[in-house]
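Recap from last week: sequence in, structure out.
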Amino acid sequence: MKGLPNVAGTVGRIVATAQNGLEVIRMGGLDTGTEPTPYKVVETEKMYRLRRYFPDDAGDGFAHIILIPPMMVSANVYDVTQENGAVSVLYRHKVIPWVVDFGSPDHEEGGMERTLTDHVVAISRVIDLVRRVVGQDVHLGGYSQGGMFAYQTAAYRRSEGLASVVTFGSPVDVLAALPLGLPAQLVVPGAEFVADNVFNRLWIPSWLARTGFQLADPVKTARSRIDFLRKLHDRDALLPREDQRRFIEQEGWVAWSGPAVAELLRQFVVHNRMMSGGFVIDGEVVSMTEITCPVLAFVGETDDIGQPLAVRGIVRAAPDAEVYETAAPVGHFGLVVGSNAGRLTWPTVGEWIQWREGNGEQPAAVTPMSRTRSESGSGISWSNRLTYGVGQVAGAGTAVSKELLEAVNSLQRTTRAVATESVRTVPRLFRLGQIQPSTRVSLGKLMSENAKRTPHDEVFLFEDRVLTHTQVNARIDNVVAGLIECGIRPGVHVGLMMDPRPSALVTIAALSRLGAVAVLLSSSDALPEMLTLAETRIIVSDPVHLDRAAAVCDRVLVLGGGSSDARAIERADGEHIVDMEKIDPERVRMPVWYRPDPGLAGDLAFILFTETQGRLNRWSVTNHRFAMSAFGAAAAAGLSNRDTVYCLPPLHHASGLLTTLGATAAGRSRIALSTGIDPERFTREVRRYGVTVVSYTWNMLADIVDAPEFDPGQLGSVRLFMGSGLSAWVWTRLRETLPNARVLEFFATADGSAILANVDDSKIGAMGRALPETNPVRVAAYDPVAERMEIDRDTGFVREAGPGEVGMLVAHAGQRFEAAGLVLRDVFRPHDRWEVGGSLFQSDADGDLWYMGSAQAVIRSRSGPIYPVPIQHALSLIPDIKLAAVYAVGEPGEQLAVAAVTLRGGATSLTPTQIRVGLGELPAAERPHLVWVADSIPLSESFRAMTSRIAARGLPKPGPRVWYRDQDGRYRRYTASAAATIDWTALPAGDDGGAE
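Predicted structure tokens:
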């Protein structure tokens, strides 16, 4: 009857709701009647079980793909629904799926101790196994964090045996767009803390993993549950999505092992090494740049976990790979499960595989990924959010909040950067201010502190291998035992001739831990004089330098080069030449006087050597001066345990010992070492190790940046170049090609009394100012002709040089035990003490210091003093000039300034106009008298131009590539007729001008 309620229908709905609800309570869900896709476990190991789907099909003519689940998700994620599941759809596209099942770690033997390395190495073994079975390369795929495994495995294998890599919502540039839009400044310290203090003790149960995933989108989770309850009476409406619902809410989650999560957070969140490179797998250094096979990345346009910006980082992380993408209007889970996945994702994967196998066309949904970053925020557009969020106002509200937070974050970026730098640098500078002569401080003690604080962090990277603080510290102790066995005691001066490799750095630290003095030697002709100046009668050498060391010293200890039978030191006799690798440290009886790291601030720690105008100078470095350099450089560079420093300078150079090794130890950074310097190796190792800071000396980088194969696009991880002696043109080239990196130029006087740094990189060629907490400096007025400081007649004190005036740099000698050179008293005021280092400087209007050369290097011409460094700086800015060296010919007062230059690749000569314009900022009287093009300029082991060798040639002969300065300061070709009209009689002519 019209108007009466349908009582029977209502009762039927109530009964159906009760029946379905009871089934859900008892069984956990509705019985859909579906069966899992048939598979067979073809291999079982402790780490995994390998499923081969459709085992009854031999797979003739089929391609093969290995699918990896995330650590917290069941392997059944690829077979959730019978019709739209990954394995079924792929099979219909003539692809045989193989699925890696890691099981649930809490139910597997040793599962809770699994590491990230265990997973990657296991996947690599699976690839080898499947390739042997099918006889062809395979495709590798992974969802979410499983896709990160796929990338890491491909990089670990250097793409061997892989036809392609396919990932689904897998972030690469993790810090660019963290899940839920969380700020990196908050997440990184938190992730580091929980990795070091929580997940090293605990693991994540499956229920917590499930809860965390659901909380990522609480609105959608609540809505799906409400929809389920509202439709509980309609079984037919629920059944199509029931398998998916049960997987997400109950059955699809497994536990996470704590060590694996800790390693994931430490390497790929805190250090973001999928982007920078240098992550460690099974003790081997790996970089995403090793991926060379094609890559297809699926991007969820509304994915708040694997956000588009983070996922698209793969195109920058793997520059040598062909990278494609498919964007899908879904969230994180919808990429692999559900109707959209069955309609778009998996058919596209099948078409992609057939295309890569040569059996089809490029899928319409697959497009090359752009290498230019166009997204803002997380990469999820407003339109996608609004489309996806119809009916989910809260979700849209969250998006608006994120964008507003990002705007605020942008406004506060400068303040936050300053605060971050303060947090890093203030403790170091505060520690420097507390150092007294009796304070225990040394390199060995720094290494001990780092080993206690972060024992499992990596410290040395070399030849694709990695050593942790614990391993290095143990090696240092072993070398100490060997040194004691060889009779080395505290205070003994021990020479060191070794290439910059882990064994050399360990030996330096071991000498410091023992309390001996490390004398850093080069293999130059001045080696015998070095040993005399340093009072050294014993040398520690690597096998490479053994012959040179044995030729000048009666006792040589050989260390490094490996300990296998192939490393046989035939000359070792146990007395004059001792193979320290043969000493068993366990059998060495440590004497009662031995105390680790006894060095005090006032103790002598190192002896270096500098050469000025052919004269060798000893540079004694105390532990205090080492600490000043190390902590000051670390603070100036902002070094932290997130940095990897590429050590190129030799250790006998101050830049290698003090501002590379010392600063790295003070900053707890990783140090990457190389076997040589060439453009190809440089680029490869920077990418592989994830180098963030490159150290250099003098002209070390010239050949690299001038090489045709130099590609700055491959050096995106580098944020800083630090060292000393960088030429102006290399500095300019780095600025132009790597705008996101800066240069930190250091300068130390020959006696080490003053340490300067150009911290802000605003002025090319400037030495900047004194490092904080190091000795304050001033520029005293100086007469380079009379070779003495100028006195203020009114006060009787030394006059301080004004801006633009060349003077002598002096450093305040606050610590009496520090004085290594000439110390003057009552210089600028009564009772003050200043140390004279012999370096001439000029300050500009801003107070920044510019190096003019040493007092001995001043060229004393008829027209007055000529300073070589400004000439070299000006010449190196001429585009065609690669190297420049300035030297004097003649007797003081009658000397000529001669500049020798070499040309960059492609240039054949210079023009007088180029020279005149290049030197135009210098007064005519301070320009070189002659400029000539040399075929080469000899360089020292530290890549410094050896001007003394060029000066020995005398004046260049007239020729087409020699120019002289006329009376007006202009340059003209130095021909035979021109030479005849100029009076050079007072000067000796060289036998070999060298101007070809």
